[in-house]
Design brief:
The complex is a heterodimer of chains A (232) and B (858).
Chain A (H helix, E strand, L loop, with lengths): L1 E12 L2 E13 L4 E5 L6 H8 L7 E6 L2 E2 L5 H11 E4 L11 H15 L9 H11 L15 H12 L6 E5 L7 H18 L2 E6 L2 H5 L3 E6 L2 E3 L1 H4 L1
Parallel strand pairs in A: 3-8, 3-9, 6-7, 7-8
Antiparallel strand pairs in A: 1-2, 1-4, 4-5, 9-10
Helix pairs in contact in A: 3-4, 3-5, 4-5, 5-6
Chain B lengths: L1 H13 L4 H9 L2 H23 L1 H5 L3 E5 L5 H12 L3 E14 L4 E10 L10 E3 L6 H4 L3 E4 H7 L6 E4 L2 E11 L13 E6 L3 H4 L8 E8 L5 H15 L3 E4 H43 L2 H9 L4 H37 L14 H23 L26 H20 L4 H33 L10 H8 L8 H32 L9 E7 L3 H10 L4 E15 L2 E2 H6 L8 H5 L2 E5 L7 E6 L14 E6 H7 L6 E6 L2 E13 L10 E3 L1 H4 L5 E6 L4 H14 L4 E4 H40 L1 H13 L4 H38 L8 H22 L2 H4 L10
Parallel strand pairs in B: 3-8, 5-7, 14-19, 16-18
Antiparallel strand pairs in B: 1-9, 1-10, 2-3, 2-6, 2-9, 4-7, 5-8, 6-7, 11-20, 11-21, 12-13, 12-14, 12-17, 12-20, 15-18, 16-19, 17-18
The chains are: A alpha/beta (232), B alpha+beta (858).
């Protein structure tokens, strides 16, 4: 469950205030699929960052799984993300010094460490193997990101996003750096996992075909929500 | 021309975004340049001072010296000089006890009895001012400042030297011919009038006295003429000659050696900085691929792009080297103040343009040479990469790029040229280059092994240990793309290694000084020398009545060698073949003893001791034992005959025993040991060794002996030991300064490395935050990374230090080597903490940025 009320974000640019997001409100129910679309620079990424608690809004509130993000400290937000949120990025964002398996383990181990238990006791490697097998990468656990193709890297990123069984998955242009065929397979995978696990999905894209698969679509232009007709 | 202007303009504009970071890489060479300029300029200043003050340093044009009073023939030469208008001043130097009754203070001093008129050149500085001429008119003493402190005395107190009393008229802070201050281990100086020497009644049989004549010629060049004319006489009478030029040459020779060594360390610091530049530039270039690709798309040729970045490297090298030179000049300004009292001459501060420009030139050369290889990468960037960057993270490196070989060759010959530049002897320069190459090579290998070891331990499917996630992630960071682990480990490891090696050598020397001398129970710690035959009973009686044991009473008989195996000394001295004895063995005066067995500081290695008194049948030689080193240089062995001149009496001996002597032990050791029968009728003096643990009792015993037997000199070994330790500490200070400089360079390389990986770190920190990491977890990851880096550097440094320290202690000092483990653990810990603090401080930015960065592909 994700609710945003009157979210605004104002940056200072060269000493002058620059409004990138103007009073955006939205609601996604559990298991829902929201696509945020709009042209480059319309505030999509800023909105995603605010919804996931990566940044704080200038005004307005975000309720994520019943928690008011504005009431939490940075570390508390990080903890909430570790437990309930998954991410898939346009540029994959794998840690280059870790193998595929180790990358998938990162969120599990971060959570395990926080819980105070030793990382080895929580079955992190086994869970990582399972997830990698699920995204079709069994046998490539010990490869480093540089040894994987773009599509394979994004599949590792998806496995990592699902590692902690998140309630909500944020994906920022997940196919932006992939060719059409690979991108299509990646989206299939995300949608399938979404259906299987009942994860809420928030997807930022400017690909209309991709947006069409979502239950709800939010069109952004110059930081404001506009009706679908006006957007096209 | 227009092309050059374009390159310069583009280089300037293109550097805008990263000037500060680039400057940080380049600053690693600043300290090295600073050291070269400071040492070079200071040495030049000092040598100029020595050159202009050469006569003041000796106080005369020529000094003639001998351990015996000048013969009638030498005296005749001196008289003829006076008649010809030259001025001659006599000086007698000897050791004695000086005693102040009021404070009961007693101390071994170096007495210098001088004639009026000395010094002919230079000024004596006394306090109160102008007291020096008092020596011409009154029976007074002028003493070194440190003596007043040692005796708790003050000006006006009466100093007793032998049987004479001298009121202290003043203290002296500068005297030509003598460097005042801390380096005099065996005695502070006391100046008395030459005419009062007989009153002390100290010049007796066996006393070691230095007789000198100081001469000022009408024409200073006459010094050389006199030496040439009278050489046969001086040689025959064993008169040593020293001109002002000799003094200058000796001092500048020592200065050159010291300066060469320090500059060598400075050069290494500079080259470590160069390694830092290379790795910083490597990381910088990797981050510039986009820009280069765009420039190439817009039509820039490969040579142009290369020229733009090479210009940047050279410009930054120039800035960093100039800053370093400024630092060097500032240090040069401070050095004379720090070293006051230790310098042989007054140092006037002057700028040395060739040293400064040379230093800057070397700095720029090092920056460019080391930047060359990593900069070659920009030539390989394809314009295509502007279009598809995400997939092309590294430029494709062709297997054999001839330019890389050229760059490596340029670097190697550059380093070689640098090493040759300061050395007149090409072999020494080549040796330096090889030594540098070898040490950097070993460091690189050690660093590589250490990193690989850490990797194996924690990473991959075969990891032995499952470490907590934050530790594994931190260690993994050591291999992150564009990492500079190896260069940081090399640069820091070298600094740590140098510091630790110096510490180890010093600690082993100190331990040796302590265990070999007075600290060990039962070893003598108080030595009385110059005891006359009729005083032996009296001295041992005083020792016993003070409750102290008489550990040894050793007779000392002075003698010279007159023939070996029947060949007279004069004949042997003319023989220049390899089989002839070394000349020192024939010229020196031997102080020998007689006994019939080994003492604890020596070992019988050949032949056998005689029994009892070692009588010889009439006309037959007496048995003698020589030390192995004398046997080697005198070219004798068991069975050879040596003829000795003992106070005019010929004593024939045959070598029957060889002893290996540990000369470093502070005990009485002898080149030659005779049988009792051979020497018991010869004129002799005695040495008495005792041990008194309480310092107060020791001083009282010294006083009692000195009062009853003024000619007897005593050595307080504990005092001597402290002096030796102080000198060691001073010498170590200069070298430690250079080691700290290398460590400072290492820290700069570390800072540069952190700066180079800045973007990766921020990106990774943001990603981890997005994935749910708290600030604490990210801190721990970084901490693990830096502690591991520091630990690796410390490990490499300490291993090298132990290897180097062992080699030095074993081969140079020939001592047993031990590693003080707690100190090494402390060095290890301190390095890890230092690196962690520097790294964490430089990484603050990671925490300032929000997790949002991860979405905005910085």
């Amino acid at each position: 469950m994700l609710i945003a009320n009157n979210l605004s974000k104002i940056y200072l640019s060269g000493g002058r205030p620059l409004t990138v997001l103007k009073e955006v409100s939205l609601a996604v129910e559990s298991g829902g699929f929201l696509a945020v679309v709009g042209p480059s620079g319309c505030g999509k990424t800023t909105l995603l960052g605010l919804l996931a608690g990566l940044d704080v809004p200038s005004s307005g509130t975000v309720l994520l799984e019943g928690q008011d993000l504005g009431a939490l400290s940075e570390d508390q937000r990080a903890r909430l993300r570790g437990e309930k949120v998954g991410f898939v990025f346009q540029t994959f964002q794998l840690i280059p010094t870790l193998t595929a398996q180790e990358n998938v383990q990162v969120p599990i181990e971060l959570a395990g460490q926080r819980a105070g238990g030793p990382a080895r006791g929580n079955g992190a490697p086994e869970r990582a193997w399972e997830l990698l097998a699920r995204v079709g990468l069994d046998g490539r656990e010990h490869h480093y990101p540089a040894q994987l193709s773009g599509g394979e890297q994004q599949r590792v990123a998806i496995a990592r996003a699902f590692a902690n069984e998140p309630k909500i998955l944020f994906a920022d242009e997940p196919t932006g750096n992939l060719d059409a065929a690979t991108g299509g397979r990646i989206i299939e995978l995300v949608v399938e996992l979404n259906r299987e696990l009942g994860t809420t999905l928030v997807l930022v894209t400017h690909d209309p075909d991709l947006a069409a698969r979502a239950k709800t679509t939010l069109h952004l232009r110059d930081g404001s929500v506009v009706p679908a007709a006006a957007a096209s | 021309m227009r092309r050059l202007r374009f390159i310069l303009a583009l280089a300037w504009r293109e550097s805008r975004a990263s000037r500060r970071r680039l400057l940080l890489f380049a600053s690693a060479i600043s300290l090295g340049v600073g050291a070269l300029v400071a040492i070079g300029s200071f040495t030049e200043n000092l040598e100029k001072g020595v050159r202009s003050q050469a006569r003041q340093l000796l106080g005369a044009d020529l000094e003639l010296g001998s351990s015996r009073p000048f013969s009638r023939n030498v005296q005749a030469v001196l008289d003829s000089l006076t008649r010809a208008g030259a001025r001659v001043a006599r000086r007698t130097g000897f050791s004695s006890m000086a005693y102040v009754r009021r404070t009961e203070g007693i101390r071994l001093v170096d007495v210098r009895a001088v004639d009026p008129g000395f010094p002919f050149y230079g000024d004596v500085v006394t306090s109160p001012a102008g007291r020096w001429p008092a020596l011409d008119t009154a029976r007074v003493a002028i003493v070194d400042t440190s003596l007043l402190v040692a005796l708790s005395a003050r000006i006006g107190d009466t100093l007793e030297i032998g049987n004479a009393q001298f009121p202290i008229a003043g203290v002296v802070s500068e005297v030509p011919g003598h460097v005042t201050g801390g380096f005099n281990a065996f005695g502070t100086q006391v100046y008395i009038p030459f005419r009062d020497v007989p009153a002390t009644r100290l010049i007796v049989f066996g006393s070691r006295v230095r007789h000198s004549a100081l001469i000022k010629f009408l024409d200073p060049r006459d010094a050389r003429r006199l030496i040439n004319r009278e050489r046969p006489l001086f040689d025959r009478e064993r008169v040593a000659r020293q001109t002002a030029e000799d003094t200058q040459r000796e001092i500048t020779g020592v200065l050159d050696d010291l300066s060469t060594f320090l500059q060598f360390v400075g050069l290494i610091a500079l080259l470590l900085g160069g390694i830092g530049v290379a790795s910083g530039v490597g990381a910088f270039v990797a981050g510039k691929i986009d820009t280069v690709a765009v420039l190439r798309c817009l039509g820039a040729s490969r040579p142009l792009v290369f020229a733009v970045y090479l210009t940047q490297a050279a410009a930054l090298g120039l800035i960093a080297a100039t800053a370093g030179a400024g630092l060097g000049v500032a240090t040069q300004l401070v050095l004379p103040r720090l070293l006051r009292g230790l310098l042989p001459a007054d140092v006037r501060f002057t700028l040395e343009p060739d040293v400064i420009l040379g230093g800057i030139g070397i700095g720029v050369a090092v920056a460019v040479l080391f930047a060359l290889r990593p900069l070659l990468e920009v030539r390989l960037v394809s314009p295509l990469q502007a279009l598809r960057r995400a997939f092309e993270t590294a430029p494709a490196r062709t297997a054999r790029d001839p330019w890389r070989l050229v760059a490596a060759g340029a670097l190697a010959s550059g380093v070689l040229a640098l090493c040759m530049y300061r050395n007149e002897d090409p072999a020494v320069g080549l040796g330096f280059a090889v030594a540098i190459g070898l040490s950097v090579g070993i460091l690189a290998l050690a660093a590589r092994l250490a990193v690989a070891g850490a990797r194996r331990l924690t990473r991959g499917p075969h990891a032995r240990v499952r470490w907590p996630y934050v530790v594994r992630q931190g260690l993994a960071n050591l291999h992150r793309p564009r990492n500079q682990t190896r260069s940081v480990v090399i640069a820091l490891g070298f600094g740590v290694g140098l510091l630790a090696a110096l510490y180890l050598i010093q600690a082993n020397l100190m331990r040796f000084v302590r265990t070999s001398t007075a600290a060990v129970q039962g070893r003598p710690n108080l030595v009385f020398i110059d005891i006359q035959r009729d005083q032996e009973q009296g001295v041992t009686g005083l020792v016993r009545s003070a409750g102290a044991p008489v550990l040894q009473v050793v007779p000392i008989v002075p003698m010279r060698i007159s023939a070996v195996n029947g060949r007279p000394k004069e004949d042997l001295l003319r023989d220049t073949s390899r089989a002839a004895p070394r000349s020192w063995t024939l010229r020196r005066e031997y102080r020998s003893t007689y006994r019939d067995s080994s003492v604890s500081s020596e070992r019988l290695v050949g032949g056998a001791w005689w029994h009892g008194r070692g009588e010889a049948a009439s006309g037959m030689p007496y048995p003698v034992s020589v030390s192995t080193d004398l046997a080697t240089d005198l070219k004798v062995g068991i069975g050879d005959a040596i003829t000795w001149d003992v106070s005019g009496v010929t004593v024939e001996t045959r070598v029957v025993a060889l002893r290996e002597v540990d000369w470093a032990r502070f005990e009485t050791n002898f080149f030659a040991v005779f049988s009792t029968a051979a020497l018991e009728r010869a004129p002799r003096s005695y040495v008495v060794l005792t041990r008194v643990d309480d310092a107060g009792t020791r001083a009282r015993l010294q006083r009692a002996v000195s009062e009853r037997f003024p000619n007897v000199t005593s050595f307080d070994v504990a005092l001597l030991q402290r002096t030796v330790e102080r000198i060691l500490a001073r010498v170590a200070l200069a070298i430690r300064f250079m080691a700290a400089l290398s460590l400072g360079t290492g820290a700069l390389v570390l800072l540069g490395a952190v700066a180079a990986g800045r973007l990766e770190r921020i990106r990774e920190g943001a990603l981890l935050k997005a994935l749910g990491a708290t600030r604490r977890q990210i801190e721990r990851i970084l901490l693990a990374e830096y502690v591991a880096l520091g630990a690796l550097a410390a490990l490499v440094g300490i291993v090298l230090a132990i290897a180097g320290g062992w080699a030095f202690t074993h081969y140079v000092f020939e001592l047993r080597f031990t590693v003080p483990a707690p100190a090494m653990v402390a060095v290890f810990g301190a390095t890890a903490v230092l690196v962690a603090v520097v790294g964490m401080t430089a990484s603050r930015e990671v925490f300032r940025r929000t997790a949002m960065e991860v979405l905005r592909d910085v």
